[in-house]
Amino acid sequence: MKISASILATSITRFSTMLPTLKKEEIDYLHIDVMDGNFVPQISFGESITKEIRGQSDIPLDVHLMVENPEQEVPKYYDLQPDFITFHAEATDFMVRLCEDIRVHGSKAGIALNPATSLESVRYILPYIDLLLVMTVDPGFYGQKFTLSGMQKIQDAKKMIDASGYDIALEVDGGVNVNNIAQVSQSGASICVAGSAVFKNGVPGENTIQLKKLTETA
Ligand code: DX5
Ligand code: ZN
Asked: Which regions of 24-182 does DSSP assign to beta strands (E)?
């Protein structure tokens, strides 16, 4: 299990002093939640803050774009060479083209699905995807509760990916914590996003190690 730490769950001022202490041996990815105030109600940060983070840390970036018009926004991140650039299926009709473009520019292409969006919306484009992000809360805020149907959707997504034969990471985002991460892992997730569970209390590196341990003993 890999952990992608969502920096949305900490304040940007706290985060800037904390960033030099975060180690890639502990935190697998920094999950950058870009929010445009249109696709989701609030605005968070964009490519300039992401660039500063890139300059100050060697932890791989996992950019999650909760934005309208992803065709316009995605290219702004190419220079930063994130490991993953993920956009939402609900925000575009042209997912194939955008995934191909992300790959050409050297990142892995991710597609995110809101809890209410069916897995069918990506079934026929799996050859173009490197990561499927199953949202287990409605996007827009950290600290929400894991949806009741979340485990079922993760299991169904895992089955769909395995049956396709493609090498696609299954990422789960929203409400993942010490109480449910073992089950999320057993259901088939390979990367868990954790915001509150990493940043709200204690030391981020230690919290991450604890989360990972819970999936190993499960
Ligand atoms: C929600 C974001 C998540 C969120 C996760 O819109 O995409 O990444 O920050 O935070 P927690 O783990 O607190 O649900
Ligand atoms: Zn996210």
From this structure: 29-35, 61-66, 84-88, 108-113, 131-135, 169-173
Q: Does pTM surpass 0.90?
A: yes
Using DSSP, state whether 74 is helix, strand or coil.
Answer: helix
Quick one: which ligand is closest to 174's CA? 1
- Inform me whether the pLDDT recorded for 207 exceeds 70: yes
Residues 6+ apart with CB under 8 A from 152: none
Quick check: is 101 catalytic? no
The pLDDT of residue 218 is above 70: no
Rounded CA separation 23/150 (Å): 30
Å from CA of 207 to ligand 2 middle: 18
- Catalytic one among 28, 62, 83, 173? 173
- Whether ligand 1 lies within 6 angstroms of the CB of 30 is answered as no
Atom of ligand 1 nearest to the CA of 9: 9
Q: Which amino acid is at 97?
A: R
Q: What band does 12 get if pLDDT is binned at 50, 70 and 90?
A: confident
CA distance 66 to 85: 11
Tell me the CA–centroid distance for residue 26 and ligand 2, in Å: 19
Calpha distance 43→36 (Å, rounded): 5
Q: Is 178 helix (H, G, I), strand (E, B) or coil?
A: coil
Measured in residues, the chain has a length of: 218
Atom of ligand 1 nearest to the CA of 196: 13
Closest ligand relative to 64 C-alpha: 2
